[in-house]
Here is the input.
Amino acid sequence: MPTTFYIVRHGQSEGNVNGDIMGTDPPLTEKGIKQAKTLAKVLASVAIDQIFTSNLLRAKQTAKIIADQKKSPVFEFAQIRERFFGKLEGQKGDAVGKNYRQQIDKFNQISLIEQLRWRIVEDMESLEEVLGRVLPFFDEIANTNRQKTILLVTHANVMLSLLAHFSFVN
Here is the structure.
């Protein structure tokens, strides 16, 4: 039996509400805490052997809520943290949309495979680069946790890159 992975995104954060570009480290909102508690209830009947989380606060908070319900420790890993957005970090999405309209329009018109390599600004991490740090982590975790069930608490761009890599989206 292979390693089984459950991959979840953190609950709503203050940055989500504020429209921040998300490499920053905001905490969960009250709604995000409720979402994490609901997720913990959904996962209550799932036997999980290990819980791994991004080292960003919103993911750690989500993982802790689930881990408290499971009475399980949480292990933090930078490899599954959110995409680095370079000079866009911490800016508001509206401002980025206005200031980088041409780049965003191009991004939205290309295939997902092309989007994996695309960067809106030069110093941001591409989704392909996200995969470059996430896939070796998956291999290591799968090899050291054979026949176990792993919960990963991570971020939207990590999940998107994995979905694209495994051809679940196009």
In short: Helices lie at 14-18, 30-42, 57-70, 93-99, 101-109, 112-117, 127-144, 156-165.
